[in-house]
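Mods, move this if it's the wrong board.
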Amino acid sequence: LNNGLKTIADMAFWHCKNIKEIVIPATVETIGQNAFADCYALTSLYIPKSVTTLKSGAFAGCTGLVSVQLPRALESQVATAFANCGNNIVFAYYD
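Not the wrong board. Structure tokens:
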């Protein structure tokens, strides 16, 4: 993804089953609804501090996820953004 990007659109990478890695630029503020839903091969994720909004289902169904690092300010959005991912994810929050 390009630097300068502010929003990852709704369903932008929905059902891209072979995405193994995502580098979210530090300019992104919003990750849209179902933007990365059902990206099964994704195993780990780092969400930069610039992201202030994770829309519903942003990473829903990403059953391969085992670790997610994200700003503590997004903690209240985790349940809806990571729905149906299973119970194997370890969330690490940072300030």
